[in-house]
Each structure stands twice: as C-alpha cells, then as structure tokens.
Amino acid sequence: MSPHLDELLEFLAIPSVSTDPAYRSEVERAAGWLAGRLEAAGFSAELVPTPGHPIVYAERRVDPAAPTALVYGHYDVQPPDPLELWETPPFEPTVRDRRVYARGASDDKGQVMIHLAAVEDLGEGLPVNLKFVIEGEEEVGSVHLFDFVREQRARLAADAVVVSDTAMFAKGLPTLTYGLRGLAYLEVFVEGAASDLHSGVHGGAAPNAALAAARLAAALKTEEGWVRIPGFYDRVRPLEPAERAEWQRLPFDEEAYRRMLGAERLEGEPGYGVLERRWARPTLDVNGFVSGWTGPGSKTVIPARASFKFSMRLVPDQDPDEIAALAEAYLQRAAPEGYRVRVEVHQGARPVLVPRDAPPVRAAARALKAAFGRDPVFVREGGSIPIVTAFAEELGAPVVLMGFGLPDDNLHAPNEKFDLDNFEKGIEAAKAFYRLLPEEVAR
Ligand code: BES
Ligand code: MN
Ligand code: MN
Q: DSSP labels for 301-369?
C-alpha cells in the first residue's frame, strides 16, 4: 500500500492547473512524471504534444488474443483558490483521518493512480492489453483530445474504455455511473457608458452596467427555478418511470444532503426530486460576476462595464451548440435598452448515457463486488466528462464509468480529499476488472 501512497503524494505535489498559463511548466512536469511511472511499469509511454497541454499515451500489449482496455483519466486540476480556506496547502498533500487532502486528490489524480497502482501490482501478470490516455485539459473542455481521438482512432481501438473520474453514491456503496450531463458555458459582457463615472455627479442620468447585467442574469431563470430561454426544454428526454423508481430506492437522505451543502433550503424545478434535478434535468447557474469596485472600502462610481459567466448543464437529447445559440439570441432580445451586450461561447460538452449491460460493465460490476463485498448501484451524475461521447462514437467501445470519489470530496473546492479506503479498494477493483474482462468479453 504505502509505496502507492507515496507515489500519489508525489503526483499531487505537482500543481498542474490547466486553466492558468502561469502553471504551464508544472502541467508539463505532471505529464512527464506520469509517463515515467508508466514506463517503469513496463509500458511504452509518450507525451503527445497539442497546441495546449500534452496527452500522456501509453500502451502495453501482453497477448494478441486477449481483449484490450483503454483507461482514460486526467492529470490536470482546477485552480486551488480561495487559498485561505485550505487547512493545509493544496499542493502539500497531507494525510489526516485516512484521507489525503490536496487539489486533485479525488479529481482525478487519486483515481488515475488507482490504475497505475493496479498495473504496478500485476506486473507480468497483467491479463489484458492496456492503453492509457491521460490528458491535461479535461478541466478546460478537452478541446485537443477530441482531435487526437478522431485522428488516432485505429491506434486507440479497444474492447472497453474505463474511466475512473466519478464518485460512489455513498461510502461503502460501490457505484457504476451510466449517465453524465453535458455543458454549455457562456460569458456576457455589458457596456453602458464609455468610461466609469462619478456616481454623484452623473447618478440619475448615466446608465449603470452592473445593474443592467444583474437584470439580464436574473432574466435567465424564474424564481421557481425554470430556465426562461425559449426552446431550452424542447429536446429534454423525460425520465423513464422505471428509472425514477430505481432512484427512489437509493439510500438518499435529502435533509442530510442539505446539511452537507450548508444551505438553508434546496432549490430547483418544482415537481422533481433532488436526484432527478441533479442528474436528469437541465439547469442554469451563474458562475461569476464582475463589475465596478470590489476592493476594500468604498468607491462612489457608476460602472461602465460588467460581465458575468454562466453555465447550463444539459441532458439527453439537448445539444450544446444549439442551446448556446438559443441562449445568445434570448440575451440579445432581453438586453435592457441602451446597453451593448456581447456574448462569448466557451466550452461545451454533450450529455451521455452509456450501456448498463455491456460485457465490460458486467466485468466492472463483478470486480466491484469482489473489492467492496456488495453489488454496485447504478446512478447518473450531474457533472460532465466531455470526451466520453467521443470514445463511444469514434471507438465504438462500451464506456465503463467506475469511480471511487465520495460525495463530500470537495471537488473544485477548498480541502479536496480522497479516501484511502477507496484508494485501496479501488486498486483491488481495478485489478479484478482487468482479470475478469477476458471472461466477460468472451461470453
Ligand atoms: N470529474 C469531473 C466530473 C464529475 C465529477 C463527474 C463528479 C461525476 C461526478 C470532471 O473533472 C469535471 O469537473 N468536469 C467539468 C467539465 C467541464 C470543465 C467541461 C465539469 O463537469 O464541470
Ligand atoms: Mn475529473
Ligand atoms: Mn473536475
């Protein structure tokens, strides 16, 4: 165990923040570290350069007659801010109460490390041909990986794709995820006057971009929680009653969930349960808002400019490009008179449902049972992993979403952590998955 943990701590100490150019060389260092570990485990590994961050590609062929699995994950992480809220620094991984605390611990370095540890343990006994695709741009939309998968689809051919970048429904409850939401992410720029103005001298006559942007943002959603963009819901596929009934049997405590969030009450579309709202309904959230004076003290000013970012989580069969276009058209129509509004479309991801009965899924279910002592539950998740659709479509291989995070891992937030029981059991599950795959694929 301990050598794997030491390795994980080393990996986590590299601040591979993909969105911030200041970390560029660190992102590269993380890629190099990973390729080195894979080489040491008997793989031939390379760093595939892209216009962004490199892709780590590695493979090991053990037997032409054995099936091939492709492991996907990401070595990039989200920015660690706000730093002052971390109990120990984000890139000084620390073990407390059988958990390792660091940015990327659960998302996704700890889970990538599970597969690396599994192949290290198996050594010469690796029973399948294995390919690793570990990218450095998942947290910024995987743009360049799409080109790689399309161009290299022959080299990436596999009987199964396994992704460990999701969470278990609860501690001790192994989980296979079969649905992820998609994403459309937009930024809105509002301009009122040519320059900021004295709020006493010009107040009462001058336009205020902050207020106009706030009105525009507020116009995106009703107070009840419905998205007001016309056409937004047109392609939403309703949840099957059987699926809803299955989710009602999951051990979900709405009150405990509310407390975990530290929120006084939960929001969302009336008439849908919390899991349905998070997994099978689309939604819209403002992610950031900038305008005027935000420093200490006061400044009597009328902001000339304001901007905000918002994201929409999408479900089958919504299309991110179509939704972005609908949103942009609505914003232009809803723009308060006299303000210039410009909309920029950032990354998108399509929603995805993966099969629940394919042979590799059966192998994963058996592997989880072997490692955790009970059958897995099947869930959907609200987050997105953009490249999953490309694996399904370009490679035609079933995708298995076998994740080992926990609901309170603090992904993208201060004090991200990864549970060491899940780390150990995850390694056992990964080994069992590779062992069981040939049998299930041959059935
Ligand atoms: N691993 C997460 C997605 C996730 C988290 C799925 C928990 C299921 C459960 C992934 O790293 C992530 O954060 N994705 C981004 C994608 C975006 C930046 C394009 C997301 O969902 O915000
Ligand atoms: Mn992730
Ligand atoms: Mn993430």
A: EE-SEEEEEEEEEE-TT--HHHHHHHHHHHHHHHSPTT-EEEEEEEEEE--EE--SSSHHHHHHHHHHH
- Interval between CA 215 and ligand 3 midpoint (Å): 30
pLDDT at 1 over 80: no
Residue 99 DSSP code: E
d(CA 57, CA 356): 27
Helical (H) or strand (E) element with 390: helix 388-390
Per-residue pLDDT reduced to its tens digit, 198-250:
999 999 999 999 999 999 999 999 999 999 999 999 999 999 999 999 999 99
Residue nearest to ligand 1 atom 20, measured at CA = 384
- Model confidence over 167-192: pLDDT tens digits? 999 999 999 999 999 999 999 999 99
Annotation marks residue 20 as catalytic: no
Is position 267 annotated as part of the catalytic site?
no
- How far away, in angstroms, is 372 Cα from ligand 1 center? 25
Q: How many Å is the maximal CA-CA distance in the chain?
A: 81
Query: 3-180+351-442 has which fold?
Result: Aminopeptidase (3.40.630)
Nearest of 155, 139, 138, 145 to residue 50 by alpha carbon: 145
- Nearest-atom number in ligand 1 for the CA of 140 is 18
Calculate the alpha carbon distances from 106 to 31, 111, 144, 349, 423 in Å: 17, 6, 23, 21, 9
Ligand 1, residue 349: give the atom nearest the CA: 19
CATH dotted code for 182-241+280-349: 3.30.70.360
Q: Cα(404) to centroid of ligand 1, in Å? A: 14
Identify the active-site residue in 59, 120, 138, 416: 138
Which atom number of ligand 1 is nearest to the Cα of residue 74?
11
Domain ranges in the chain? 3-180+351-442, 182-241+280-349
